[in-house]
Amino acid sequence: MLIQTRNDGFVHPLSSEITPQSAYEDRRRVLKLMASGAAGAALASWASRDALAQAAPAPGKLAALKGVKSTVPGAQTMEKLTDYKDATTYNNYYEFGTDKADPAKNANTLKTAPWTVEVEGLVKKPGKYGLEDLIKLSAQEERVYRLRCVEGWSMVIPWVGYSLSELIKRVEPQGNAKYVEFVTLADPKTMPFVGSRILDWPYTEGLRLDEAMHPLTLLSFGMYGEVLPNQNGAPVRIVVPWKYGFKSGKSIVKIRFVEKEPGTAWNKAAAQEYGFYSNVNPNVDHPRWSQATERRIGDGGGLFAKRTKTLMFNGYEPQVGQLYAGMDLKKNF
Ligand SMILES: Nc1nc2c(c(=O)[nH]1)N[C@H]1C(S)=C(S)[C@@H](COP(=O)(O)O)O[C@H]1N2
Ligand SMILES: [Mo]
């Protein structure tokens, strides 16, 4: 997900693992901010990274949030679940840092209560939903989804939530609503990297209305039978399993219905690398690396774990393929 830092033709073997220059500069700023006491708790985590990694939360530490096994087609992969420890210590959540271990160490500052999600734009029934009301809006289901990052790694996570379509039906989109934009929290007081130049904050994402209405698109409040850990996007996030991970925005505060394709954080940062659709597609390479294979996090061997073939639409082609019938997926990457 990182912006190219060299123009001399050098291709990083693992671009995703390398911290860009801008991040180093920003980190100096962040360390200063932390030292000033603005993020005291985060400073403590920074200093004791390894100790904290070992004390990674485990199921049983957060509030329980159970869901009935989902019957939505495609929502129950039989693959081995990623260990909770891996799913909660290897994350992308740039508001809390660009290293995979940063969110687990820094996201303890995220304040998840009270929390409201505002639904606005081209809907007949706009409104503000308190988190508790949003959780109760529909029955919680457990869905085991693969989530594949554009960087080439993937996880298998038992999410808890319900189809975003349940909420969309309630708010009654108007006829001219064609897209849904997701706006995530950007709070410089609790998120040390908001204000850095890495992305244009807040982190926003978007889907076409029919993609947002697809039953597999999940409004998620939990995983592994508990509420979401902060680093995974507490208290509410989107999970779109057939798209690269960055389409699944964390810590959502606004859902906006619009007529035109909305801008998205990664598209704004590097339009030639991250398109609006970003469907998992092994046949369309990222400009700087292949998308044909992936490695499952926690499969042993770390970065050298064996790679497996990436599937079209991340394996969800039977369910979602028809959404893109007739579209040129090389052009609409
Ligand atoms: N707000 C916000 N949402 C985000 C991101 C982010 O940096 N900020 N990273 C995205 C990326 S690149 C991925 S791969 C997934 C990772 O989700 P996970 O940490 O729960 O596995 O979250 C996505 N959602
Ligand atoms: Mo990602």
Structure description:
It is built from ten helices and 13 strands. The protein is globular. It is α+β, with helices and mostly antiparallel strands and 333 residues long. It has one domain (2-7, 61-324): Oxidoreductase, molybdopterin-binding domain (Sulfite Oxidase, Chain A, domain 2, Alpha-Beta Complex), CATH 3.90.420.10. Strands 1, 4, 5, 8, 9, 10, 12 and 13 form an eight-stranded mixed beta sheet that branches. A five-stranded mixed beta sheet has the order 3-2-11-6-7. It starts with 20 loop residues before the first helix and ends in a 13-residue tail after the last helix. The model is unreliable at 3-24 and 36-55 (pLDDT under 50). A hairpin with a 5-residue loop joins strand 2 (116-121) and strand 3 (127-130). Molybdenum atom binds next to loops.
Summed up:
With 333 residues, this protein is α+β, with helices and mostly antiparallel strands.
How many helical stretches? 10
Q: Please give the alpha-carbon distance between the first and last residues.
A: 15 Å
Which runs of at least 5 residues are low in confidence (pLDDT < 50)?
Answer: 3-24, 36-55
> Helix and strand succession?
HHHEHHEEHEEHEEHEEEEHEEH
Q: What Rg, in angstroms, do the CA atoms define?
A: 19 Å
According to CATH, what is the topology? Answer: Sulfite Oxidase, Chain A, domain 2
Count of domain modules: 1
> What characteristic shape results from the CA principal axes?
globular
Helix vs. strand class: alpha+beta
* CATH secondary-structure class: Alpha Beta
Strand content: 15-25%
Major sheet size, sense and barrel closure: 8 strands, mixed
**How many strands?**
13
Give the second-level CATH assignment, the architecture: Alpha-Beta Complex
Can you give the mean pLDDT? 87
**Ligands (ions, cofactors included):** the ligand Nc1nc2c(c(=O)[nH]1)N[C@H]1C(S)=C(S)[C@@H](COP(=O)(O)O)O[C@H]1N2, molybdenum atom
The helicity comes to 10-25%
